[in-house]
Amino acid sequence: MFTERVHSRAQARDTSRIKVLSAAEELFVQHGFATTTIRQIAESAAVSVGTVMAVADKNGLLVEIFDRKIASIQPSPSGAPIARNPAAEIIDILGSFVRFFAAQPDLARAYTAILVGGKHPSIIFAELTGVLIEQVSDVLTRAGHPATDASATARIVHRAYLGEIFIWAGQGHPNPDSTLTELEKTVRYLVNGKAA
């Protein structure tokens, strides 16, 4: 009997969490992050303000929403034996994230500002760092780069990617094409040793 009550409480918590995150995402998209309030999220989710805050504050909600979306677009390794055009493969890997951020520029900017603030770390963002570095390193290794060089170059490519994302987030207008173009120039330079 005790375990049934604990299980039903855990189920209720999970259900509330899903309702809160869904309501928050819908309101953030419709009305913007800055103007959406915790009270509005609570009303939309049909829960109390306390229940919303038990899930997370507004910043934490956005980080969790974005983390879930980012997790769903993580690229899988190509598995091709030889990388014939490593720069293009790398841009394909990183480009999906640039396009994801560009699809919701205001929320993406709020998300990056929250991460820079350091109060709400993103577990997915940290895990994704390792995944992306590993995938870029794999492309470079398959293209014939020595493993040590491939790993070091992959880290530099990842930092360039983050730099472009944060530069884009700091601009007042969404233009993923210029971000992708700049990232592509950097990647081609690092991979091929010359400007695109």
From TrEMBL:
Protein name, per record: TetR/AcrR family transcriptional regulator
Keyword Transcription regulation: yes
Residue ranges of every copy of the HTH tetR-type domain listed in the record: 21-52
Signal peptide feature range: none
Keyword Metal-binding: no
Gene3D superfamilies: Tetracycline Repressor, domain 2 (1.10.357.10)
Pfam families: TetR_N (PF00440)
GO MF annotation, one: DNA-binding transcription factor activity
Keywords on record: DNA-binding, Transcription, Transcription regulation
InterPro entries the record matches: Homeodomain-like_sf (IPR009057), HTH-type_TetR-like_transc_reg (IPR050109), HTH_TetR (IPR001647)
